[in-house]
Amino acid sequence: MPELSKDVVALLQYLAPGFLVAWVYFGLTSHIKPSQFERVVQALVFTVAVQAIVAMEKWGAERIGSRWFSLGEWTSESTLMASMATAILLGVGVSTLTNTDGIHALARKLGLSKRSGHPGEWFGAFCDCPRYVVLQLKDGSRIYGWPSRWPSESSNGHFFITDVTRQANGETQVLVQLEGILIDAKDVASVEFVKEPETNDGQAPSTCDPTAA
Fold first, then answer.
1. Of 22, 60, 90, 122, which residue is least crowded by CB atoms under 10 Å?
2. Of residues 183, 159, 184, 175, the one with CA closest to residue 210
3. Domains along the chain?
4. Any transmembrane segments, and where (predicted)?
5. pLDDT bucket at 174, cuts 50 / 70 / 90
6. In this predicted model, what pLDDT tens digit does every residue of 38-67 receive, in sequence order?
């Protein structure tokens, strides 16, 4: 195994906070990891952001230490610990804003963008429309139920459907004996989102009634 040069090791140490942010981000979101080059670029951007935040943290700590109380001198170890903690918190914060569509919702409200924070229209439809679905399979059968899990991409992954009703060859089967069923996304031709029925007061319930369709 070839040894890494000192320059490469120094570069990896420099980008470590950025890689940590990216690791947390992709671990908490459904976005697909980009290419290796794009990961390095992202790590560089995140590293600069972490360094800026740590610089403000150092300034604040020194101000507090000079005016009120001091926990000790700010050293290189302090910078390392602050960088790691900041990277983790930044990754959690960015992933939370992405999963809740916070940044893009504000951008849409201000007319700056029409995009969402979801990895694609497929994933966004399931996030924004929590309701019962009908999976039209390529073999002609139909699966009705609640999508407890769904894939990030339309061509890869599986659906986990609960409260399952299956229609095939003109027959309808209510699979009450099953906890759920896994459906390969490659076998799905289309997905239908069941419209929520209105209640007596004219309002739609928070979730759909499985017996309504």
1. 60
2. 175
3. 6-108 (no CATH), 121-193 (2.30.30.100)
4. 12-28
5. confident
6. 888 999 999 999 999 999 998 988 888 878
